[in-house]
């Protein structure tokens, strides 16, 4: 028996020096909606996609000793070709081809590939803070 029976994903968080800019990106690109969030002594924006996927954007602590995400948006390794085996969050999009085209039209560098089954298309890219993202043409089958 699993130790956390009934567990499910609650949210994904991203730290950013500019949470408003990052929120705008996720709302424009994916259609996230801003939802009410608690008041902290630092800036936070909570976003929701669909009925159950939440993204918490949290102002980066200027005194933090932690590195800035897996990649910095200005890093030389911030090439979407590195993402299939790197840290990323994947979101299914039903209109895969037109969605990927819209990313390219916005000037977002995209790395496209297909899974070995040849049925599932994938596109990898970065948000403005260098966080890895993937979009997929297939809903996961359990």
TrEMBL record:
<dbReference type="Pfam" id="PF00903">
    <property type="entry name" value="Glyoxalase"/>
</dbReference>
<dbReference type="InterPro" id="IPR037523">
    <property type="entry name" value="VOC_core"/>
</dbReference>
<dbReference type="InterPro" id="IPR029068">
    <property type="entry name" value="Glyas_Bleomycin-R_OHBP_Dase"/>
</dbReference>
<dbReference type="InterPro" id="IPR004360">
    <property type="entry name" value="Glyas_Fos-R_dOase_dom"/>
</dbReference>
<feature type="domain" description="VOC">
    <location>
        <begin position="8"/>
        <end position="138"/>
    </location>
</feature>
<protein>
    <recommendedName>
        <fullName>VOC domain-containing protein</fullName>
    </recommendedName>
</protein>
């Amino acid at each position: 028996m699993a130790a956390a029976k009934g567990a499910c994903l609650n949210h994904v968080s991203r730290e950013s020096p500019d949470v408003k800019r990052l929120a705008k990106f996720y709302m424009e690109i994916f259609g996230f909606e801003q939802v009410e969030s608690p008041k902290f002594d630092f800036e936070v924006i909570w976003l929701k996609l669909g009925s159950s996927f939440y993204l918490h954007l949290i102002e980066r602590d200027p005194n933090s000793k932690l590195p800035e995400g897996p990649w910095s948006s200005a890093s030389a390794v911030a090439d979407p070709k590195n993402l299939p085996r790197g840290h990323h969050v994947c979101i299914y999009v039903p209109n895969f081809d037109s969605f990927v085209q819209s990313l390219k039209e916005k000037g977002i560098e995209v790395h496209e590939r297909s899974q070995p089954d040849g049925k599932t298309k994938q596109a990898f890219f970065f948000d403005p803070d260098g966080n890895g993202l993937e979009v997929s043409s297939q809903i996961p089958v359990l």
